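Task: sequence design from structure.
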């Protein structure tokens, strides 16, 4: 810790006496104060050419078999789901303290498994003789399984060694981030016993050391020596990311007086992902990522990633950052990808997937599909809506309109002439969907 104090003693507020990157001996584009610490507030994204997704490969025998099994399972579940729900409610009333839960077994001939603590097969047969309804005796109640999963989190939360837990049909799964030897030693030090219902999985994520806090830049293997003296710390999480929220986030990462901050999040200090590395790219911009690969982010631009932007409070992670950069909120940035690059790739993927969808779902030819896509893009660009404050919202893209699933059809009589009901949708003998969506009907009328 004394090393951190020395680095932070000048504070992170020095902005005067800066020199440009053209000065001799400076390794990347930035402003440098008299102590050599760098400041980068803006940077253009690196050049990026979207990769074209390859054509879908022909379906394999295994995939075709899986499709057939999926249909078999769907047909079975649709035929029994009302009976299953009704029977489950009855068991809850009449077998309280014995009935545990129900689940669908989709392997082979699909079936429904009702779980009990005592005499599962005999108990179920008192209520039904359905040949595909199976009674099973299990050791633990659902309440016990949920309590055991919660116990794992409460016991090891401070150690941050769990990636996830899940309650399966008759046991708890716990995915562990460290090696089995380290975890067993941790359990022994705590003097606890893992519940019998818990099944440990040690292959869930890359194995990392049990203690691996952020280090000073000068001691960090992820920071080249030529960069280290110009930053105070390059802090990274000491665990790979576990499950992330299904939400897209964006953060502008800048460098101020040698400290990484989120310019659009109140200048909060930044904690990078586990795999991040710092480098100088071919155009002399300071950048971070897992290597100089297409789509990496430069310091001074916005990154895009999946997951929420959360504040970090674990002392082992935030104390070294505060020692180097002073007090302040610390947030976790989950991604290493340039938002500009991601936007260009998503736009390219959207167009290509849209053209493929128009051809495969509705039977359009390639040229007509391209005309339809361009027509819909232009129409959507004109349909810009304001938000509650009067600001223009981004338009709903053509691909977003096209990817909206069609409404399911319940009765064969509702299918248009020339089509028949198949798995809840109307299809022509060639497999094309009918009716056409309203926007496509409108395009086809004017395209004639």
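Answer:
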């Amino acid at each position: 810790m004394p090393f951190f104090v020395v680095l932070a003693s000048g504070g992170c507020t020095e902005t005067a006496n800066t020199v440009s990157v053209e000065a001799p001996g400076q390794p990347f584009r930035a402003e440098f104060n008299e102590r050599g610490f760098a400041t980068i507030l803006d940077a253009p994204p690196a050049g990026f050419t979207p990769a074209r997704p390859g054509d879908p490969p022909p379906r394999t025998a295994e995939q075709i078999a899986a499709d057939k099994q999926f249909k078999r399972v769907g047909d079975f579940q649709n035929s029994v789901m009302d009976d299953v729900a009704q029977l489950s409610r009855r068991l809850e009333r009449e077998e309280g303290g014995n009935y545990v839960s129900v689940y669908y077994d989709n392997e082979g001939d699909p079936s429904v498994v009702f779980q009990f603590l005592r005499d599962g097969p005999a108990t179920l047969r008192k209520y039904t003789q359905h040949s595909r309804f199976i009674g099973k005796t299990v050791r633990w109640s659902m309440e016990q399984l949920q309590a055991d999963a919660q116990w794992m989190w409460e016991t090891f939360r401070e150690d941050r060694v769990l990636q996830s837990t899940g309650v399966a049909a008759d046991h708890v799964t716990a995915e562990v981030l460290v090696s089995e030897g380290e975890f067993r030693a941790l359990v022994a030090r705590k003097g606890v016993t893992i519940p019998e219902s818990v099944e440990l999985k040690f292959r869930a994520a890359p194995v990392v050391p049990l203690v691996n806090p952020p280090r000073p830049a000068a001691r960090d293997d992820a920071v080249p020596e030529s960069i280290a003296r110009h930053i105070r710390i390059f802090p990274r999480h000491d665990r790979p990311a576990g499950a992330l929220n299904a939400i897209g986030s964006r953060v502008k990462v800048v460098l101020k007086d040698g400290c990484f901050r989120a310019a659009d999040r109140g200048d909060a200090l930044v904690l990078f992902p586990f795999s991040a590395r710092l480098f100088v790219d071919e155009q002399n911009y300071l950048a971070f990522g897992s290597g100089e690969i297409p789509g990496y982010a430069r310091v001074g631009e916005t990154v895009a990633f999946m997951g929420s932007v959360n504040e970090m409070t674990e002392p082992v992670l935030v104390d070294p950052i505060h020692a180097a950069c002073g007090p302040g909120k610390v947030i976790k940035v989950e991604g290493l990808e340039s938002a500009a690059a991601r936007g260009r790739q998503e736009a390219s993927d959207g167009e290509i997937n849209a053209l493929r969808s128009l051809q495969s779902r509705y039977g359009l030819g390639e040229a007509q599909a391209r005309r339809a896509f361009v027509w819909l893009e232009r129409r959507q660009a004109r349909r810009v809506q304001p938000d509650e404050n009067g600001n223009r919202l981004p338009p709903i893209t053509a691909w977003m309109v096209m990817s909206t699933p069609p409404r399911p059809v319940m009765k064969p009589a509702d299918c248009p002439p020339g089509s028949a009901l198949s798995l809840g949708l109307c299809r022509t003998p060639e497999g094309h969907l009918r009716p056409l969506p309203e926007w496509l009907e409108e395009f086809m009328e004017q395209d004639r």
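The first strand starts at residue 31 and ends at 32.
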